[in-house]
Structure formats: structure tokens, C-alpha cells
Amino acid sequence: MSAPSPHLHTQTPQTAGAQLPQVTEPRNPGMPLDLNWVLSAQANTSAIERRAGSIGARRSVKKAYQAAWLVKAVTCIDLTTLSGDDTARRVERLCAKARQPVAPALLEAMGVGPVTTGAVCVYHEMIPAAVAALKGTNIPIAAVSTGFPAGLSPFELRLREIEMSVAAGATEIDIVISRRHVLSGNWQALYDEMAQMRAACGEAHVKAILATGELGSLRNVARASLVCMMAGADFIKTSTGKESVNATLPVSLVMIRAIRDFYERTGIRVGYKPAGGISKAKDALTYLALIKEELGDRWLQPDLFRFGASSLLGDIERQLEHYVTGAYSAGYRHAAN
Ligand SMILES: O=C[C@H](O)COP(=O)(O)O
Hints:
The protein is built from 14 helices and 8 strands. The chain is α/β, with parallel strands linked by helices.
């Protein structure tokens, strides 16, 4: 077992949750497309894989520190259901979990006040159910619009879908980019598309889903990240959860470095959302360590970091219960999502 990382040993459960001051980053206003900058972005695959491989292996936090980071992770989850058979009832259950993601008795035992997830994330048609179920809370509703997950419906319809989702009550819109613009190196088309989608969002924050598993190379991921940020994305997000390869550490490293580069050159902080296939508490800790090391503590707040996940919360609850009680409860005692 590797030694606990001192870098993560800076929080107790009491400081990890809702007691942290709520901060909200100003929105990314965007900037003109800078093709020289975009084309200068490269990705050294072997160096990236080496660095990504070193994160999970070196980062192991235990006991109270681990519990603190897991509570932090909960506050950064976009609790998601994106299934063809979604119903209002399922969304109501999801929202009930978002309101109270960890059993009050566990939080009390850790000395932590109430926490919520970062947001809930649903399809457009499920927004009204989420609005009703989250009434009286500040939990944002994120909607996947723009012909999710392929993003191949007519462009005008995709823009209209955004407007309809915002009108229905979504305050965050997760858009999907046209992968073909990246695969053909048409950066102007990607920029224009992203800028128009951002404009259609109005006051709602926009997360740009790159669908990195379909972009062909890490260099394309780096360039697409920059173009979306130049066009005003508030967050960049790895995946829809529907590609055959979703969030990975190498892809995350590339996107995080693009965010850092963008911040160093413009002073604007863009958020990061790994999504798809993140279902284990251990993986959540690895992502948090990566963010802390590469971007720093400021990015470890829900306004700049989210997990897109449908089944991560269950495993985190299991680990927190183990921390408090010393035993794992049977799987049937935990919610399915
Ligand atoms: O954006 C969120 C993802 O669709 C969730 O993916 P997941 O179901 O693999 O956790």
C-alpha cells in the first residue's frame, strides 16, 4: 500500500462539505478564435500516459481524510439519469437523492452539516419533473440538449432545444459538439457552433461535451478544448457516457492542461467535468487528486468541477458508511442510482 499523500491531507470531514463558503466564478466571456494558439497545441501521448498512470498509484488517502474527500466528491456530482426509459418517478427519486445524498446520521457522525450534490442532469423532457422535485433548493438542473448524444440533429433544432431547455428551467446546458468539425480540422466551424450554442444558453451556464472517445487523438482533444473555451464554454466535459470510451485519466490530463493554459493566458477559469463510467469512490479520489495537483484548490469547488455520474454516489455512500460504522452494509440497502 502506498503512503498517504500529504497533499490530500489538508481537509477533515468538517471542512469538506457545505460549510465551505459558496463561491461563483464569473462566466467565461470567450474571445476571438486564435488559430495559431489552437494549432500550436500538441499532445505527447507517452508522457501524458506516464503522468496519468502515476496519479492513481501515488494517491491513497485513508480514514478521516478519505471521508472528507468523499464528501467533497458528493458535492461535485452532477447526479445523472440519461436513459431512454426515464420517467418522472425516476427523476423524482434522483432529485430526492440530490437533496439528501448522504444519510443524515452519517453526516452527523462525521460532524458535517447538510450537503447536496452539485446538480442533477437529465434529458430535456425530464426538466419539469426535476423542477418540481427540487423546488425550494438551490440545486441546479443541467439538461443535455442539442440532440444528445450524437449531436446530429439539424443545427437550428439544436439551438431551439437549448432555448426550450432554458425556458423549462434548466440553468446549466450540456451541449454536444459536432465531432466531424474536429476530425476534419475545421476549427472555425467548431468555434462558430460553440459560440452560437453559448448565445442560445443566455444566462444558463454551458458545458461543452467533447465526446473525447470519438475525437481520434489526444492532440485533437487539446485543440477542441481550446476552441470551445475560446468560444465561451463555461465548462468542458469529456463524454456523453454513451461513447465506447468515456472519461479517462489521460484525456482528463490533456483537458485540464488546456484549462490551465487558457487560465494562464486569459485569466479566465473554465470548469472541468469528467463523465461516463466513473462509478467507484476510489476513482473519484484519483480525479480530485489530479485536479488539486494540476489546477489547485480553487478548481475543487462545484462551480469549477463536477463529476458526471449515474452510479458513483452509491459507492461513495458505502465507503462513508464503512468509515463511520466500520462495516459495509448490504448492497440492497443502498439506492440503485
Ligand atoms: O454525463 C453523465 C454521464 O452520462 C453519466 O455516465 P454514467 O452513467 O456512465 O455514470
